[in-house]
Amino acid sequence: MLIDINAYVGHWPFMQLKYNNCTALVERMNKYGVETSVISNLNGIFYKNTQSANRELYEELKALGTQRKRFIPFAVINPTYAGWQYDLEECVKKFGMKGVRVYPKYHDYEITDPALIELVKRTRDMNLPVAFNYKMVDSRQRSWMDIDYVAYTPKPEWTLKNIFPIIKAVPDAKYMILNVTNSMQLDAADAALFKKARVLMDTSGRTINDLGSLLKTQGTERFAFGTHAPILDYLTGMLRIESLRAEEADARVKELLRSGNATHFLGL
Amino acid sequence: MNRRNFVTRGAAGMAGMLLSSPLTGSAAPPPGEAATRSAPPSFDLMKEVMKYRKIDVHAHIYWTDDSPETQLDYGRRLGIEKQVISRYLDVMPGTPEQFRKFNDLTIKAIKKYPGQLLGGFVLNPVYQKESLEEIKRCTDAGMIGPGELYYQVKINDPKYFPIIEKLIDLKMIIHSHAECQLGVGGYRMKYNGYKQPNTSIPEDFVDIARRYPEGIFQYAHIGMGGDWEYECKLFREYPNIYVDTSGSNNAENMIDFAVEHLGEDRLFFASDNSYYQGVGRVLSANLTDRQKQKIFFDNYNNLLKKGGRGVD
User: How many structural domains compose chain A?
Assistant: First the structure.
């Protein structure tokens, strides 16, 4: 069984996406043997009021009929925008959402913003994960209207060091770190803290190209299949798992990566 | 209290009230509601991976002790039969001593692994005489053509003309680095991409392809992170520009889009050492098995055959 912990529906304003609604995603999942996908609505990155996007996703899932159970919706929350606490409550209690995705760069706040800390503490208290990502699209192909964190410039793309301060601030929360595309290096003390934290990373990002080694250094329970679809192709994240050799990951570990770790982490 | 604090604290107070007052009118599917969920049939990805013969037409080796063995290991893992390797000239100014040293590394690798590695040479047309001599030296050593020519000189610079004419005479595929990023190589320079000023851009490829319609040009890595929609649209009318699909950015729909605009014969499978992305993006494309096989192997091999260098 495969559970994809990093998928989206919705639009990217600077490029047309394919397979970016639940119906198309179900077809993709069926074709490639994926039973369940964690999804959120990309539109929430661009709407000032993210709740509109969460409601869109809820309505789309409601209209999907029996297939809706194949999705685990996550809310997009901007903790610096008025009413987010109400939105979070509504997403969890009314919309049945099982986690939160945040976008500090797009929503223009710092990783240590007190509002974000408050949100993470609240999700912790609700036993919900909060998901960060390194980036949404490759900065080298960014539109002139997109954010300007650009690889190999004085304002580079994020690394783990940029995300880590929130983990340090609320070390007992549940974190998902997605599309891991740049360095995972931390200094020794932070690395030790990171290793103790409840973190699940997905396999969509290019830094996961040596998953066999990462399983040894980070542990077998900290990674799970993810696609970052429909922005990234559907199979590369899967290929990083399926091509592992027996000495890198036996059958048990592969099942953890395909679905076991996601099931445990998300409390499915 | 600043405005943000006011908004945040105000909202927090409201949420506090909400927590003690359950939301009403919920239309959410009740937790645990039984809904039909039939598991999809399993998909044997590695069987699909191994179904296709593959030549990776853009790969590199390094100065490290584990190279090229690490690159070969990725190839074995993903069923890549051959890799066209080079040690790209990522130094300035790129003197003859430097490019000879870089090519020596490649020659050493292809001599050691002749069944798996095909060699591409590098040069710098600023040093025209030495570059032409280097083409002969490397061809005599068994290399199949230029590897990824780099950013010392733009591909359409007149300094390149005698080099390109020689490569055309030899029926070699002319492979050059290029980018399509804001603020790089002349593209929208009000931004600053912090790259070498002579980096080639798509317009430079069009210029040289028009000058030499008999040349076969390989535009490097449409998956490198540049604007692949721009690249493919610009190259549509230039049948002697082929694109290699390599790069670390495995955007969904990139391959489909490239086939739509360039046709299924003008794409070469490649990784630029991002092996998983290289294979994954072609496999996930909405193409027929035959189209995938052409991209993975046949398109490039057919051009190699024209120069007597085919691999089967």
Answer: 1
Q: What are phi and psi of B185, to 5 degrees?
A: 65, 15
pLDDT at B5 over 80: no
Q: How far is B20 from chain A (nearest CA, A)?
A: 11
CA distance B298 to B285: 17
Which token pair is B19? Answer: 């927590």
What are the residues facing B174 on neighbouring strands?
Answer: B217
- With an 8 Å Cβ cutoff, is A85 touching chain B? yes
Mean pLDDT of B264-289: 98
pLDDT in tens, B177-194: 999 999 999 999 999 999
Distance from CA of B74 to the nearest CA of A (A): 10
For chain B, what are the domain ranges? 45-306
The 8-class DSSP code of residue A101 comes to E
Q: To 5 degrees, how large is the angle CA B9–CA B14–CA B18? A: 140
Mean pLDDT in consecutive groups of 10 residues from the start of chain A, 268 residues: 98 98 98 98 98 98 95 98 98 98 98 98 98 96 96 96 98 98 96 97 96 96 98 98 98 98 97
What sign has the CA pseudo-torsion B66, B67, B72, B78? positive
Chain A residue whose CA is closest to B39: A35
Q: pLDDT tens digits for B85-140?
A: 999 999 999 999 999 999 999 999 999 999 999 999 999 999 999 999 999 999 99
- B45 with A32: Cβ contact below 8 A: yes
Q: Are B143 and B172 in contact (CB under 8 A)?
A: no
Contact B284 A235 (CB under 8 A): yes
Q: Which residue has the tokens 């529906």?
A: A9
pTM, full prediction: 0.93
CATH of the domain at A98: 3.20.20.140
- Judged by CB atoms closer than 8 Å, whether chains meet at B4 and A115 is answered as yes
- Over residues B35-52, the mean pLDDT reads 87
CA distance B179 to B162: 24
Average pLDDT, stretch B18-34?
38
State whether residue A161 sits within 8 Å of chain B by CB: no
Q: Which amino acid is at A260?
A: G
Chain A residue with Cα closest to B196:
A152
What amino acid occupies position B289? D
Rounded to an integer, what distance in angstroms lies between the CA atom of residue B281 and that of residue A53? Answer: 29
Helix (H), strand (E) counts: chain A = 12, 9
- The CATH class, in words, for B45-306 is alpha beta
Structural domain containing residue A257 = 3-266
